[in-house]
């Protein structure tokens, strides 16, 4: 018993050291703190057969409270970059690949990739590159990019049309029909309705909506609609016409809203704007853009005064709400040089009432300056381990004339407090779902033993409870995008298991 007490004191002291290390590093997880966290988990697990369940729960509470005080479990740590991982390659044709998004295009439970070509003054159509993941959610293996694999978008109703430039590309189920649509941005779009009378329509800084008219497993992107659902982030000239945006349920009301940036691309500042969806998840209707919503600055002030080629809305610090991350580049991005950076706006509000803190450059040690040129970052759980990894689209090698390279930084931080003190893992298949899917939850102990289950988001809010025998399907209808902890309790043995479920919006 004395030995057990000494071991518990050692673990408590180790938790204090971790919290102090993280606090001294501005809330960022150091490699030393990450090593100590692994030692803490192993030490806790070694006591499981020696202490009562009540004593273990008490110890877990004390350790968790100590770690939370230093924000050790919200800090993230990323490994060194790996170039072109998992079979990824740059687009081999045309100009550089720029905007990209990871999304389960074929509904097989893993992330695929879609990217677009920049077309710097030489391309007048949207060229999409599709990378199919032939591996799995935890071990991806991407096929070579194919243009036109899931359709070639055109603008119906025009005898001649063109779109000019643009970097942004994102995937979202904007119309709530159960499959992913694509949205892109262009500096300019033009369409002739009659060759002989020279009747035409033109748009500055339009949003281009490519609806999936296929199915969740066999998508088809064959048409372009300009500024759908009341969306309008443009102007009457090229000024402030470079835009990037992301869609997510930022106010937790069940539909997808827009948050983005725009600039003129030549050192004139980067504005931040939002468009609230006041319609529904299946019939969206967007209000006019609002500059500087939710406490975000109306204009970003930083060393980067050129362009914001991409934004991301995701729970990067794993506290249960959506943060705002902006990829930025200075005004020389069009050459082979230039400098890129990453700005992090932490959401210190709640899922229902976001409130963003002041920007932090190079969050969690992520440095885009190591790439140079035009670099774009998105976050995705690419290796299926329950946390968000960083994937960069790097155009520094060949400039804007391509081809690009992808760079991957694995998130090596521990996950949640609950997971830190759990020794068994629930299996979740698939684990790259969108809201409305029903993934299988499978207990690790096998058989048909009765069990209770509870699902909560990362803020601790319980979203589902119930009981089952061995395995069950979990209904995620209406769930906001984010990460969820699935807790299983065997009613016969009192064994517990935990798993982490990733739900994408819409």
Number of domains: 3
Give the overall shape, derived from the CA principal axes.
Answer: globular
Strand content: 25-35%
Low-pLDDT parts are none
Largest sheet: 5 strands, antiparallel
Beta-strand segment tally: 32
The percentage helix is 10-25%
The CATH class name of the largest domain reads Mainly Beta
For the record, the CATH architecture of the largest domain stands as 5 Propeller
Q: Which fold name corresponds to the CATH topology of the largest domain?
A: Tachylectin-2, Chain A
Mean pLDDT: 81
Structure commentary:
The protein is mainly beta and 506 residues long. It has three domains: 1-74; 82-409, Tachylectin-2, Chain A (5 Propeller), CATH 2.115.10; 416-505, Immunoglobulins (Immunoglobulin-like, Sandwich). It has four helices and 32 strands. It has helices at residues 2-24, 31-46, 53-69, 417-420; strands at residues 82-83, 97-103, 112-117, 128-131, 146-147, 160-164, 169-172, 181-185, 188-194, 199-204, 207-210, 225-226, 242-248, 257-263, 270-275, 290-291, 299-300, 307-314, 323-329, 340-345, 360-361, 375-380, 389-394, 405-409, 427-429, 433-434, 440-442, 450-457, 462-469, 471-473, 482-490, 496-504. The longest helix has 23 residues, at 2-24. The mean pLDDT is 81.
Annotate the secondary structure layout.
Blueprint: H1 2-24, H2 31-46, H3 53-69, E1 82-83, E2 97-103, E3 112-117, E4 128-131, E5 146-147, E6 160-164, E7 169-172, E8 181-185, E9 188-194, E10 199-204, E11 207-210, E12 225-226, E13 242-248, E14 257-263, E15 270-275, E16 290-291, E17 299-300, E18 307-314, E19 323-329, E20 340-345, E21 360-361, E22 375-380, E23 389-394, E24 405-409, H4 417-420, E25 427-429, E26 433-434, E27 440-442, E28 450-457, E29 462-469, E30 471-473, E31 482-490, E32 496-504
Parallel strand pairs: 26-32
Antiparallel strand pairs: 1-24, 2-3, 3-4, 4-5, 6-9, 7-8, 8-11, 9-10, 11-12, 13-14, 14-15, 15-16, 15-17, 18-19, 19-20, 20-21, 22-23, 23-24, 25-27, 27-30, 28-29, 28-31, 31-32
């Amino acid at each position: 018993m004395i030995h057990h007490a000494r071991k518990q004191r050692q673990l408590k002291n180790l938790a204090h050291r971790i919290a102090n290390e993280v606090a001294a590093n501005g809330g960022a997880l150091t490699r030393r703190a990450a090593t100590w966290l692994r030692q803490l988990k192993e030490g806790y697990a070694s006591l499981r057969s020696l202490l009562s369940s009540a004593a273990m729960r008490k110890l877990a509470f004390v350790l968790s409270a100590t770690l939370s005080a230093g924000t050790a479990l919200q800090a993230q740590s990323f490994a060194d970059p790996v170039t072109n991982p998992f079979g990824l390659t740059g687009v081999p044709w045309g100009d550089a690949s720029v905007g990209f998004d990871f999304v389960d295009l074929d509904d097989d439970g893993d992330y695929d990739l879609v990217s677009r070509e920049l077309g710097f003054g030489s391309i007048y159509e949207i060229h999409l590159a599709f990378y199919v993941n032939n591996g799995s959610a935890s071990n991806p293996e991407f096929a070579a990019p194919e243009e036109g694999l899931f359709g070639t978008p055109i603008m119906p109703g025009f005898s001649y049309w063109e779109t000019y430039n643009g970097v942004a590309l994102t995937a979202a189920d904007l119309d709530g029909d159960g499959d992913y649509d694509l949205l892109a941005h262009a500096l300019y779009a033009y369409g002739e309705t009659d060759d002989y009378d020279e009747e035409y329509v033109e748009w500055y800084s339009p949003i281009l909506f490519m609806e999936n008219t296929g199915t969740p497993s066999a998508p088809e992107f064959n048409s372009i609609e300009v500024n759908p659902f009341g969306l309008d982030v443009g102007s009457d000239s090229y000024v402030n016409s470079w835009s990037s945006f992301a869609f997510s349920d930022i106010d937790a009301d069940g539909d997808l809203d827009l948050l983005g940036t725009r600039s003129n691309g030549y050192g004139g500042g980067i504005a931040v704007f939002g468009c609230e969806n006041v319609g529904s998840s299946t019939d969206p209707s967007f209000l006019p853009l609002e500059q500087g919503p939710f406490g975000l600055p109306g204009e970003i002030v930083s060393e980067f005064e050129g362009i914001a080629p991409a934004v991301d809305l995701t729970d990067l610090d794993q506290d249960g709400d959506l943060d705002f991350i902006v990829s930025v580049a200075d005004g020389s991005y069009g050459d082979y040089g230039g400098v890129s950076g990453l700005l992090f706006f932490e959401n210190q509000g709640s899922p229902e009432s976001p409130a963003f803190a002041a920007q932090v450059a190079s969050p969690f040690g992520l440095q885009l300056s190591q790439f140079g040129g035009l670099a774009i970052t998105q976050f995705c759980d690419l290796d299926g381990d329950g946390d968000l990894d960083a994937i960069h689209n790097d155009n520094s090698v060949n400039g804007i004339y391509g081809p690009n390279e992808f760079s991957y930084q694995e998130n090596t931080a521990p996950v949640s407090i609950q997971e830190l003190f759990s020794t068994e893992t629930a299996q979740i298949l698939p684990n790259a779902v969108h809201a409305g899917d029903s993934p299988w939850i499978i207990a690790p102990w096998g058989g048909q033993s009765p069990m209770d289950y509870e699902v909560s988001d990362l803020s601790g809010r319980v979203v589902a409870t119930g009981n089952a025998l061995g395995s069950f399907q979990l209904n995620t209808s209406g769930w906001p995008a984010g990460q969820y902890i699935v807790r299983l309790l065997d009613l016969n043995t009192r064994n517990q298991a935990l798993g982490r479920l990733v739900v994408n919006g819409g």
